[in-house]
Amino acid sequence: MTYQVYDTTLRDGAQREGISYSVVDKLAVARLLDEFGVGFIEGGWPGAVPKDTEFFRRARTELDLRHAVLVAFGATRKAGVAVEADPQVRGLLDAETPAVALVAKSDLRHVERALRTTAAENLAMIHDTVTHLVARGRRVFVDGEHFFDGYRHDPAYAAAVVETALAAGAEVMVLCDTNGGMLPSQVTRAITELTERTGIGPERLGIHCQNDTACAVANTVAAVEAGVRHFQGTANGYGERPGNADLFAVVANLQLKLGLPVLPDGCLEQMVRVSHAIAEIANIAPDTHQAYVGAAAFAHKAGLHASAIKVDPLLYNHVDPTVVGNDMRILVTEMAGRASIELKSRELGLDLAGQPETLSRVTRRVKELEAGGWSFEAADASFELLVRSELPDRAPVRPFALESYRVIVEHREDGAVVSEATVKIRVRGERVIATAEGNGPVNALDEALRTGLTRHYPELRNFELADYKVRILEGSHGTGAVTRVLVETADQAGRDWVTVGVHPNVVEASWHALVDALTYGLDRAHV
Asked: How far apart are CA 408 and CA 428, in angstroms?
């Protein structure tokens, strides 16, 4: 049984607020989607959108697709216009893609009020355009816009649209939940009734769902369970309003839960990599809590879960995360028990299984710190340093001893605000005093510390402060609140690590995080 995995990230997904793909972006996304193994990539609307016209022109020489067929998207001919004379139909042919997707009205109310034409003319528009494209060697998919709403309003007319498109030679008639208002049971019922009414097998039908009820993925899966073999979605669920069906979740559900062979062998494990790469191209931070591909999709926090996971990871993971290219993580929080600490330590390469006293000390220390506002949930580097400090043979070597530091913020007459920091430290028996300026107190402190250490530790030149986050802790108020600082540091090898600091003084909290960051990075550089 063959399933058609149809991606519309570059057309429907690009309608998400805040996304604006360049032609180069679109080419890069298409390559990633092909690596994921989708069968069809809808590239855009040639003739109507200049950027899309350029994309299809360049795709002919710059895309070498292994799995996917490129699809140009457009509309049926205009009312009262001969198909041969319609310029946007001409644009579809000029795109020179093997396949074409046509949007057609399937709700009689839209035909009469939006197109301002007759029911008969709309059917003729569908018939003429499909036959015209098929005669010229194109595979044609017809998207029945607002199908489910139209079917509820006038089932006979919506069914006539489906019959007309397929009789004219369309390969698949795609039933669109354009408003995103359907529920799974409604989708199943409509497909069942349609096939009974028309005698058309569900394998000739497709499904396209928007996510306005947060049911797009469920609606798509329901359609496939009802016999549909062509399903559409977008990477990460990008799209207009709340978005489209997340193609990654749909594919994973169908392949892993229903056992349907929707992707070529070896492609499913590319899911996380492709998802995150497309998010970067779209300039949207990956959703950490997205099903299957999110960093937290297989992250476990409660100690009870961790105890069971220690026995068998699948007791609390609904699938093996590695099959989609993800991994299980144990989060260390105030809810953590000994099992959580043991599993997290093992994840970081520190086996505490045979050291019950050490495990108890680490667990107790974590709970004490967490009660004071520390959080190791997103700060693996600080947690690793904490564990290693309890292991005599693995204890981290602190690169310096602090004598004092001072930070000054100066608001100058010209309006410029400059921060200056001075650190006094002892490094390998030498007393070092270093001063530096920065665009803020933390930046100045970071620069001064690096200046003082670099002669002894030249590896620091490869480190950079990649991100800095400050949070006021719950229960704290005003300018005297306790703050938590997370610092992300990266090196030139592409590695990054996160450290944490907590203190009522934000500079001191930042100092703790910076010291951990440099200690961890230098230790790793010497491994």
From this structure: 27
Is the separation of the CB atoms in 143 and 102 below 8 Å?
yes
pTM, two decimal places:
0.72
Q: Helix/strand/coil (H, E, C) string of 401-459?
A: EEEEEEEEEEECCCCCEEEEEEEEEEECCEEEEEEEEECCHHHHHHHHHHHHHCCCCHH
Residue range 416-448, pLDDT digits in tens = 899 999 999 999 999 999 999 998 898 999 999
Where residue 481 falls among pLDDT bands split at 50, 70, 90? confident
Task: DSSP letter for 349, please.
Answer: T
pLDDT > 70: what percent of the chain? Answer: 93
Residue with tokens 């390559």: 31
Q: Among candidates 155, 227, 231, which has minimal Cα distance to 194?
A: 155
Mean pLDDT of the chain: 90
Between β-strands 430-438 and 417-427, what pairing exists: parallel, antiparallel or unpaired?
A: antiparallel
Residue 311's CB: how many other CB atoms inside 10 A?
9
Asked whether 76 and 102 are in contact (CB, 8 A), the reply is yes
Q: 39 — phi, psi (to 5°)?
A: -85, -30
